[in-house]
Amino acid sequence: MNDRIAKFAIGQVVKHRVYPFRGVIFDVDPEFANTEEYWQSIPAAIRPHKDQPFYHLLAENEQNAYVAYVSEQNLLPDETGEPVGHPQTGLIFEDFQPGQYKLRPRITH
Predict the structure, then answer these.
(1) Which domain holds residue 28?
(2) Is residue 72 part of a domain?
(3) How many domains in the chain?
(4) pLDDT tens digits along 84-103
(5) Residue 56 phi, psi dihedral angles, 5° rounding
(6) Does residue 39 fall inside a structural domain?
(7) Which of 9, 16, 44, 86 is the most buried (most CB within 10 A)?
């Protein structure tokens, strides 16, 4: 069993190490939990190992907002202190302090 602790936290703003996008983390998988087809679609030169945390991001680049699934090795902290412009941030998060969002309280039964 992989007992590795995730380096990044939900609500943290990060950027991709290779590609020009940034985003806010809204979920973490302790290891790769997507399809084999998705994993094979990652260019071999930067294809990560599956046995590390993978992060779900509300991501943005200069043209689009989208959801990204990124390995820990391909993320860096975003040092801009700026919020992410993804239109769904308000659905998941309620407050922003430089570099970090605060999750909205969840209502459960």
Answers:
(1) 13-103
(2) yes
(3) 1
(4) 999 999 999 999 999 999 99
(5) -95, 125
(6) yes
(7) 86
